[in-house]
Design brief:
Blueprint: E1 2-3, E2 11-13, H1 60-109, H2 120-131, E3 138-144, E4 150-154, H3 167-174, E5 189-196, E6 199-209, E7 214-220, H4 222-272, H5 287-347, H6 357-385, E8 393-396, H7 397-407, E9 414-417, E10 423-426, H8 428-445, E11 450-457, E12 460-466, H9 500-510, E13 514-519, E14 525-532
């Protein structure tokens, strides 16, 4: 008699119960499984959704670190999973082959030598001898004695019983197979991995061909499970270290990448501040080096263009200044002549021919207008050249505004809402220029009465000039302080020079103040002048007493189409 387990190619796997390590494993020489595998323990899900998908990171460094970390984590987890799976297969296959090989050998040398109807003592002794193997597994032998009564021999009494053997495995072991060209034996060796009390076991069984006992073995896989758990912990630690290493590497890479970007940002800010000679040091041939070269070329081109524009602007300013100075001498003579003619007209002596009287009055008016324009141009050139200076004095703001209104005979057309005693340190001449321009424009375009109010707001003075006209069109508001701006192209000529509001704004700026224009909800336009109570803080410390020349002429104009 010989054991079926001793036949070559006779081993098969029976897996109706969950495999704690690998489902569907079997001896390399075995045939197809007898029963269909049914796993209770499911592997952890392979499809995972990242929780960072909807987040937006504003820091490029953070995004680089996160990307590096995700790549490293994915690579480490994949490598660890593959390593764990390969090692698990190797460990379990090696243990399984060794145990089943010893069991086959024991069935051949021990169980097959028993009588067809052995006694329990014989089975018990044979089971003990079979279990005395280097693999240290438990053995259960089942046979019938001469009376037909089932007898059992167990190497470990009350430890390994038939109840520990899965029913499917018992059925597969005891099932007689038909002999065919593909199947040379009626019985085969079958094995199965099971879990009992959270501990993994390997169960195998075989039957002696030609009559004899049926043998089962039980091998604990707990040592292998501990080894695999240790391996899993080691791989987990390695994954964590790889993640930390990737974060450090990402930090270093981000520093390498972001350092040129930071230098580029600093250079761009310096360029925006007007330092057009800013350049970047270029090294390398990568994309960042190309970007630095592009920046340098752009900065060089911009510097050249700005220099050209500055040269043209300076030439234009010199032309206006020279022209204004050259015009003052002939204008002085012309003005003297026109004043004499105007006095003759006012005296009504008859020395002027009535036929030419309208022409004389037109010449007088246009001469006065031309003189105001030249004075305004002179003042503008001072602002453009940066030579305008403040001559500060402590003045009563209300008295100053009253004097401005009285000097121009506007007392009947202006309502002043203010109390005397409001002192401020300003340039009286320039404040007079500002108020004359604002009030004159309000009277011209808005009509009387014009309301002027003064209020104290801590360290600032706020002066509002409001008229009762139709207001300023919304598309004109952003341009009311532009030089020579005309709201209507069909009316390019007006009585004013087109510089009054611009000069008023420049005089406010030199005080450290501001002028804004808006439309009042009640109707009409409102110009708001805000000045510091003490303009000495914005005074030029190198030349505080330089007034920048004679006072600017008052321009009584406002942009066409204004309030």
């Amino acid at each position: 008699m010989c054991a079926a387990a001793a036949r070559e190619g006779g081993g098969r796997a029976v897996l109706p119960h969950p495999d704690p390590y690998r489902s569907g494993s079997r001896l390399p020489a075995g045939q197809s499984s007898v029963t269909k595998p049914q796993d209770k323990l499911r592997g952890w899900a392979a499809a995972r959704k990242t929780i960072l998908a909807g987040l937006r990171f504003t820091s490029l460094r953070l995004r680089l670190v996160v990307v590096f970390g995700l790549v490293a984590l994915t690579a480490a987890v994949s490598a660890s999973g593959i390593a764990y799976w390969l090692n698990r297969e190797a460990v379990l296959t090696r243990t399984q082959d060794a145990v089943l090989g010893d069991f086959q050998q024991a069935m051949q040398t021990r169980a097959s030598t028993l009588r067809p109807h052995p006694t329990q003592e014989e089975l018990q002794r044979a089971a003990g001898q079979m279990a005395n193997s280097s693999q240290r597994f438990s053995v259960l032998l089942i046979a019938e004695d001469e009376s037909g009564k089932p007898v059992r021999g167990n190497s470990d009494l009350d430890t390994f019983t038939l109840e520990d053997v899965p029913k499917s495995l018992q059925k597969a072991v005891n099932k007689e197979q038909e002999i065919s060209s593909n199947n040379k034996y009626t019985y085969h060796l079958y094995w199965q991995r099971t879990v009992q009390g959270d501990k993994p076991y390997l169960v195998g069984g075989a039957k002696v061909i030609g009559g004899g006992p049926t043998g089962y073995m039980l091998k604990s896989l707990e040592p292998e499970a501990k080894d695999l758990n240790s391996l899993a912990w080691s791989l987990g630690i390695a994954t964590g270290l790889a993640l930390i290493g990737s974060a450090l590497l990402a930090q270093a890479a981000a520093t390498t990448v972001l350092k040129p970007v930071h230098r580029l940002g600093t250079a761009a800010r310096r360029l925006g501040e007007g330092k057009l000679d800013t350049r970047l040091r270029v090294s390398g041939t990568d994309e960042l080096a190309d970007l630095s070269r592009t920046f340098n070329r752009t900065a060089e081109s911009l510097e050249k263009r700005v220099e050209d524009m500055s040269a043209r602007e300076q030439a234009s300013r010199r032309f206006v200044a020279d022209m204004s100075h050259e015009l003052r001498t002939p204008l002085t003579a012309i003005t003297a002549v026109t004043e004499v003619l105007e006095e003759e007209l006012d005296a009504e002596t008859g020395s002027v021919d009535p036929m030419i009287e309208p022409a004389v009055r037109l010449v007088v008016s246009e001469t006065r207008r031309l003189n105001n324009l030249v004075e305004n141009l002179m003042e503008v050139t001072r602002f453009d050249a940066g030579t305008a200076r403040l001559v500060l004095d402590n003045v009563d703001i209300v008295d100053q505004i009253t004097a401005c209104i009285d000097a121009r005979a506007w007392l009947d057309a202006v309502d002043l809402d203010a109390e005397r005693g409001l002192m401020a340190r300003v340039d009286p001449r320039r404040l007079d220029v500002i108020m004359a321009n604002l009030i004159g424009n309000a009277l011209k375009h808005g009509g009387s009465p014009v309301r002027v109010s003064v209020r104290d707001e801590g360290n600032d003075l706020v002066i509002e000039v409001q008229d009762h006209g139709p207001g300023i069109p919304e598309d004109v508001l952003p341009h009311v302080f532009d030089r020579f701006y005309k709201a209507s192209a069909s009316r390019p000529r007006s009585e004013g020079s087109g510089l009054g509001l611009s000069i008023a704004l420049e005089n406010a700026h030199i005080h450290g103040g501001e002028i804004t224009a808006a439309n009042s909800p009640k109707g009409g336009a409102v110009f708001t002048l805000r000045l510091p109570r003490d303009a000495s803080e914005v005074e030029d410390p190198e030349n505080p007493d330089n007034s920048g020349g004679p006072g600017a002429a008052v321009a009584d104009d406002r942009t066409e189409g204004g309030a």
